[in-house]
C-alpha cells in the first residue's frame, strides 16, 4: 500500500512484542520515494500529524514501479511533491529534471527517477538516522504543510499540502533574508508545471493552520525549528524565527 499502510504497519511492528521485523512493499510514488524510507512510523491525532509513533525501519523495502500504473492522477501528483522536495533540499539535478521534463512515461525512465529520489533520502538518513541535524532538511514544507493538512481535516492530500508548505516556507526564507530573492516564484512555477497547487483553498481556515503549526512535532523548548532553503539544493536546518506567525503568508 501507500504511506498510511506503511506507517501503521511499521508502528504495529514497533510496538508488538517491543518490536518485530517487518517488510514494506510501497505501491504509491509518495511511499516509494519518501515514507517507506527512514523508519519513521506512526499515526495522526486530531490535534496534528504524526504525534504518536516510533523509529522502526523495515528489514526490506521492495518497490515495483509497475504498480504506479494503477494510481489515479491525484495520487501520482502527491508523490511528485515529495520527489520535488528531495531535489530542492539536496539535489539540483533532480529538481531541474522534474522542472524541465516532468513525470516520464517510459518505465525505464520512471525507475531511474525513483532510484534518484530514493538515493537522495537514503544518503541523508544514513548520515543522520534519528534526525539530530542533517535529516531535519527532510522536514522542508512539512511544518506549514502539516498545518494545512490538519486544518483541512485531512481532505487535502499530503502531497498537495506539502507542495503548499514548501512554497509558504520558501516565502518565509526570503522574508528573513535566508533565501535568494525570487526563489519562491521559481518554486511556484515548477509546482504549477507539475500540476501541484500554489494557493490554499479558500475554505481552509488560516487561523486553524497557524494553530496546527504551533503544535508541530518538530518543536523544541516551545520553539519551532524550521528547515528552510537558501537555494535549490542548499538548506538551513534548525532555524528558529521569532514571531514566525506574523511572517507566514497564507
Please explain how this structure is put together.
By secondary structure, the chain is α+β, with helices and mostly antiparallel strands. The chain is built from ten helices and eight strands. Strands 1-4 form a two-stranded parallel ribbon. Strands 2-3 form a two-stranded antiparallel sheet. The mean pLDDT is 93.
Descriptive key words:
250 residues; alpha+beta; two-stranded parallel sheet; two-stranded antiparallel ribbon; 8 strands
Short synopsis of the structure:
With 250 residues, this protein is of the alpha+beta class. The protein contains 10 helices and 8 strands.
Structural class: alpha+beta
Numbering strands along the chain, what is their spatial order in the largest sheet?
1-4
Shape: globular
Tell me the quaternary state.
single chain
Q: Helical segment tally?
A: 10
Characterize the biggest β-sheet. Answer: 2 strands, parallel
- Distance between termini? 32 Å
Q: What percent of residues are in strands?
A: 5-15%
Radius of gyration: 17 Å
Mean pLDDT: 93
SSE pattern, N- to C-terminal: HEHEEEHHHHHHHEEEEH
* Low-confidence segments: none
Percent of residues in helical segments?
A: 40-55%
Count the strands? 8
Helix-strand blueprint:
Blueprint: H1 3-15, E1 23-24, H2 29-35, E2 40-45, E3 48-55, E4 60-61, H3 73-90, H4 92-101, H5 107-127, H6 142-151, H7 158-175, H8 183-193, H9 206-214, E5 219-220, E6 223-224, E7 226-231, E8 234-239, H10 244-247
Parallel strand pairs: 1-4
Antiparallel strand pairs: 2-3, 5-6, 7-8
Helix pairs in contact: 2-3, 2-5, 3-4, 3-5, 3-7, 6-7, 6-9, 7-8
